[in-house]
């Protein structure tokens, strides 16, 4: 390949393959994957992020050289402005990679993101983007940049990223379930934040402040990009610009799964620009599909898992799915291998109890859900 030797490309593929096989937790996998990509596709500034496979909204970010104070602008240009190479468009390409200069026919100034964000605020002139798919879903994304005066990203570099995108997607998917959550904190009521038109916090509850801290934010500081993304998505959804629900499932650095939902406040003086966020502990209907998808199961294996989670034995699963008992056993063996367990009991624990077992026996809150004990 021009600009990229075959041995160098092979080394990148081999290194990423080893990283995926190692089964690393999310933080170390993402940081090492970004470092390996930086060695093969040189850039000074960039970001690798995880996404909710159901909505494509950002759940965690891992940055190199990018400031946090521009995150609100990043979210606005991604979800509220029509532009070239939006991530929601890249995901549908056979190779989910885009080079801004190539995809604008050598006229990057056609992109509002380039004119108003990349050049004047980031100080960057060249952009390469990619989605990281695995199976039927996308588990992350990449954006890397080069400054004016440097050569832009080549088609060969885009091809290289496209060749390893599936590997990185598989690694991000596996990393989602590579650790167990820490014990939940004390009960402090509903976690609600009201976000103003300037993307700053207008009001928040005590629990909202605690959840904000869990996601890496604090009152008076820039909201974490996942929250800014769902805020921007809520405004776009309300304006009819997108059909993506303003909701995401995110695994906090503590390992706990949370659900963030957003809705514009129509009665404000900011013409509906204020948005209310609610953050709550994820419940089984949210977590089970996400964790099952993270194991990389086939459609039929997912059907078998769903029956097993309902307590069906092998004969019942075979009857309900019109399979032979031997076929069910073969599917279960494959499922156990992918989930890293040896029995149905361990499988149920891996999918469900790792998140909720520490709370069993706890008091219930008024909604009937587990109330975390005092710290």
| Structural class determined from secondary elements | alpha+beta
Q: Between the first and last Cα atoms, what is the distance in angstroms?
A: 57 Å
User: Which percent band covers the strand fraction?
Assistant: 15-25%
Question: Main sheet: which strands, in order across?
Answer: 2-1-5-4-3
If you average the pLDDT, what whole number results?
Answer: 88
The SSE order reads: HHEEHHEHHEEHEEHHEEEHHHHH
Record field, number of beta strands = 10
Helix content: 40-55%
Question: How many separate domains?
Answer: 3
Number of helices: 14
| CATH architecture assignment of the largest domain | 2-Layer Sandwich
**Annotated CATH topology of the largest domain:** Beta-Lactamase
User: How can the largest sheet be summarized?
Assistant: 5 strands, antiparallel
CATH class wording of the largest domain: Alpha Beta
Topology record:
Elements: H1 6-21, H2 26-40, E1 45-51, E2 58-64, H3 71-79, H4 87-90, E3 97-99, H5 100-103, H6 112-122, E4 126-134, E5 137-146, H7 155-175, E6 191-195, E7 201-204, H8 206-214, H9 225-238, E8 247-251, E9 257-264, E10 275-281, H10 284-294, H11 299-309, H12 314-321, H13 325-339, H14 344-356
Antiparallel strand pairs: 1-2, 1-5, 3-4, 4-5, 6-7, 6-10, 8-9, 9-10
């Amino acid at each position: 390949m021009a600009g990229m030797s075959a041995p160098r490309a092979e080394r990148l593929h081999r290194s990423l393959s080893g990283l995926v096989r190692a089964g690393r937790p999310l933080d170390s996998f993402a940081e090492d994957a970004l470092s390996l990509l930086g060695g093969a596709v040189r850039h000074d500034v960039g970001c690798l992020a995880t996404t909710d496979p159901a909505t494509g909204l950002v759940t965690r970010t891992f940055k190199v050289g990018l400031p946090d104070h521009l995150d609100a602008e990043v979210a606005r240009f991604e979800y509220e402005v029509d532009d070239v190479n939006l991530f929601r468009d890249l995901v549908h390409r056979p190779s989910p990679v885009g080079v801004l200069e190539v995809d604008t026919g050598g006229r990057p100034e056609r992109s509002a993101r380039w004119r108003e964000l990349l050049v004047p605020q980031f100080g960057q002139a060249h952009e390469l983007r990619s989605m990281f798919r695995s199976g039927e879903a996308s588990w992350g994304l990449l954006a890397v940049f080069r400054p004016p005066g440097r050569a832009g990203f080549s088609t060969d570099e885009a091809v290289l990223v496209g060749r390893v995108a599936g590997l990185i997607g598989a690694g991000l998917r596996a990393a989602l379930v590579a650790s167990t959550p820490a014990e939940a904190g004390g009960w402090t009521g509903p976690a609600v934040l009201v976000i103003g038109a300037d993307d700053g916090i207008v009001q928040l509850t005590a629990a909202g402040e605690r959840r904000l801290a869990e996601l890496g934010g604090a009152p008076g500081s820039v909201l974490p990009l996942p929250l800014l993304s769902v805020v921007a998505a809520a405004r776009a959804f309300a304006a009819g610009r997108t059909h993506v629900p303003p909701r995401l499932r995110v695994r906090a650095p503590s390992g706990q799964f949370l659900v963030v939902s957003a809705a514009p406040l129509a009665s404000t003086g900011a013409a509906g620009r204020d948005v209310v966020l609610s953050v709550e502990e994820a419940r089984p209907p949210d977590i089970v599909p996400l964790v099952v998808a993270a194991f990389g199961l086939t459609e039929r294996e997912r059907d078998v898992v769903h029956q097993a989670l309902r307590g069906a034995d092998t004969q019942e699963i075979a009857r309900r799915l019109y399979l032979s008992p031997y076929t069910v056993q073969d599917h279960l063996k494959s499922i156990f291998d992918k989930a890293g367990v040896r029995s149905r009991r361990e499988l149920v624990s891996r999918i469900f109890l790792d998140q909720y077992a520490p709370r069993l026996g706890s008091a219930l809150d008024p909604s009937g859900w587990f109330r975390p004990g005092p710290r």
